[in-house]
Amino acid sequence: MRASKGDHLVQHGRVVGQHDHEVEVVEVLGPEGTPPYRVRSENGHESIMSPGPDCQVKHKEERRR
């Protein structure tokens, strides 16, 4: 997985009825765009995240379309 500052990570719900959780990448801490990432939720909470296989990257360019 590779992401850049400004990309969004979408962690899909794991059980029926659980919503997807989307966060914005504010800093890439790994080499060449690899995890871990410092991310910010809609409510302003920041954390460090190493996404698993249930996570998808929405690149800035994809979201503009």
Q: Compute the number of strand runs.
A: 5
Q: Give the end-to-end Cα distance, rounded to a whole number of Å.
A: 22 Å
Strand content: 35-45%
Order of helices and strands: EEEEEH
Tell me the Rg in angstroms. 12 Å
Going by CATH, the architecture would be Roll
Total domain count: 1
Derived structural class: mainly beta
Assign the CATH superfamily: Domain of unknown function DUF1918
| CATH topology name | SH3 type barrels
Please estimate the helix content.
under 10%
Low-confidence stretches: none
Total helices: the number is 1
Main sheet: strands, sense, barrel: 5 strands, antiparallel
Kindly report the average pLDDT value. 91
> CATH first level: which class?
Mainly Beta
Spatial arrangement of strands, main beta sheet: 4-3-2-1-5
Q: What form results from the Cα inertia axes?
A: globular
Pfam family, one: DUF1918
Protein name: DUF1918 domain-containing protein
Biased composition (Basic and acidic residues): 1-10, 56-65
Region (Disordered): 1-65
